[in-house]
Amino acid sequence: MAGSPLLIKLREMLRKNGDPQKAAAMQAYMKSPMPYHGVPAPALRKICKNAFAGVQFEDRKDWENQILVLWRNARFREERYAALSLARARSAREFQTLPAMKIYEEMIVTGAWWDYVDDIASHHVGFILNKYPVQMRRKMLAWSKCPNLWKRRTAIICQLGRKHETDLSLLYSCIEPSLDSREFFLQKAIGWALRQYAWTDPQEVRRYVKEKSGRLSALSRKEALRNIGADK
After folding, report:
1. Which residue, among 94, 47, 40, has the nearest Cα to 70 in the 3D structure?
2. What is the pTM of this model?
3. How far apart are CA 141 and CA 134, in angstroms?
4. What is the rounded CA–CA span in Å between residue 218 and residue 213?
5. Do residues 92 and 61 lie in contact, with contact meaning Cβ atoms separated by under 8 Å?
6. Buried-exposed string 118-143: b where 16+ CB fall within 10 A, e elsewhere
7. What does the alpha-carbon distance between residue 197 and residue 217 come to, in Å, rounded to a whole number?
8. What is the dihedral of CA 19, 21, 24, 27, to 10 degrees?
9. What is the mean pLDDT of each run of 10 residues along the chain (232 residues)?
């Protein structure tokens, strides 16, 4: 399937619109072993829109296969970004159900970096959590305790943007197993999730930060209180 017509078409469009100088800078910034074509995000969105305009999905299996062909055979990072774009196509909304978590888990584990994981957590996993809160709550609680740090990060940040609909008990439960972690990406995720919720309830975030002051890392605390400050 590496010779997929869609992948060939996409790769050619990316190649034509790429910039080698930007590619090198993007790869260095992302610390990526996979090279870039050098296509900025706005141009990439247009390319994906054009490349995927005629794409149809026969059923869930076909949707999964088309996404995974792009993901598994990608040679450049933008090709994986395109796979994520295809995954959330409007015509694929009916497939954003619990079985979709299988491919998102594969992408999280094999992608293993924040640019992929944050996109999947906030746009894909979060969407499914909203639709299936009971089942997804169990899954996120399990992910929050697993050895894979990217699944842990996903569990922590999957509620970004839910505001008043945030399941605060779930958020705190997903943070708890990583409170003592010295891993940067987990500390950053904790701070980010708390900072987002602080826009909704700043006093609650201040209370939580104070309560967990003995365990919360300096980075998490700084991020959590960035926009609201500590109690005076």
Report:
1. 47
2. 0.94
3. 11
4. 9
5. no
6. bbbbbbbbbbbbeebeeebbebbeeb
7. 18
8. -50
9. 82 96 97 97 96 93 96 97 95 95 98 98 96 98 98 98 96 98 98 97 97 96 92 62
